[in-house]
Amino acid sequence: MIGFLGKGSAGAAGHVMLSTGEVMGRGGSDTGRAFLSEGWGMMPRMTVTARLDLAIFDAADIDRVGSFYAEMTGWDVVRTDSDRFGVCTPGGQEIEFQRAPDHIPPRWPGQEHPQQFHLDLLIDGHEAAAQRAVGLGATRLADGPSWITLADPAGHPFDLCQKDGVGPVMGLFAVAVDAPDTSALARFYADLTGTQVAYDGPEGALVSAGGWSVMFQQVSDYNPPRWPDPAHPQQAHLDLLVDDLDTGEARAVELGASRLSGGGERFRVFADPAGHPFCLVR
Questions:
Q1: H or E element at residue 76
Q2: Rounded CA gap, 21 and 104, in Å?
Q3: How far apart are CA 113 and CA 116, in angstroms?
Q4: What 3-state DSSP class applies to 14?
Q5: 272 domain-assigned
Q6: Phi and psi dihedrals of 28, rounded to 5?
Q7: Within a domain: 171
Q8: 177 domain residue, yes or no
Q9: How many structural domains is the chain composed of?
Q10: pLDDT value at 125 more than 50
Q11: Cα Rg for the chain, rounded, in angstroms?
């Protein structure tokens, strides 16, 4: 089982549970859930507008938190400069940490200072991995039947989830994103990237594209970021690649995004329908 941090749709604090079979293969079809992946005869692939490139977390000390993840996961360090620290999984998914000197850490659980995003990591021997993570600077927050919730040195929660046969390098199951309406937010990103909603059920919704999995988890008392308001900061955002910024912006706005201040010649900043900032990058 994979644990997803936050408050579930019923409002109870804890993890929303999905089995890996329900979201990663056809074997979960007997659960009554909807699987809409391409090639299963459900619907044709749509035109691709954007491609997920990076998940980027804010932190005051990017060297510390970036080095923490590199050491804990065994992922390669692919970027180190004054503003960004990047690590990359064996599957090619890149996670970066961007310098935010005034970063206010999330305080999980609860929505006063919400987590907004978190990583679900896979490892065989999650208890030993959690102990090692604490030694590297993590804080243990909660235990589940097959996962352990910790906070990284910047305060971002993450899950270490038991997955037999994975290791010593950790796997990335998904980038998990809080939402007040998981179906709607998953459909927004699926339509923006021209992919499918691979799973949609009461526990959450999953979009998989280009080697990435993004899980949207239901939060009943959801408190959105209001970037760039420092009183309601973002904790993380997604970068999506487009061939043309004008075309990408038109499509994003058509689907329900809002253009935000900021940007430059090669990128523009938006808020998705749940308020999470994201960037379209050329």
A1: strand 76-80
A2: 36
A3: 9
A4: coil
A5: no
A6: -90, 10
A7: yes
A8: yes
A9: 1
A10: yes
A11: 18
Instruction: Give φ, ψ of 161 to 5 degrees.
Output: -110, 135
Helix (H, G, I), strand (E, B) or coil at 99: strand
Q: Is residue 22 part of a domain?
A: yes
Determine the pLDDT at residue 26: 25
Note whether 134 and 150 are within 8 A (CB): yes
Distance CA 59, CA 15 (A): 24
What confidence score (pLDDT) does residue 56 get? Answer: 97
Strands 147-151 and 157-162: antiparallel
Beta bridge partners of 172: 121
Whether cis (ω within 30° of 0) applies to the bond prior to 168 is yes
- Stronger pLDDT, 129 or 13, i.e. the higher one: 129
Q: Which residues of 214-230 are buried (b: 16+ CB within 10 A; e: fewer)?
A: bbbbbbeebbbbebeee
CATH number for 14: 3.10.180.10
What is the C-alpha separation between 182 and 177, in angstroms, rounded? 9
Position of tokens 């209001």? 226
**Residue 69, both tokens:** 């993840």
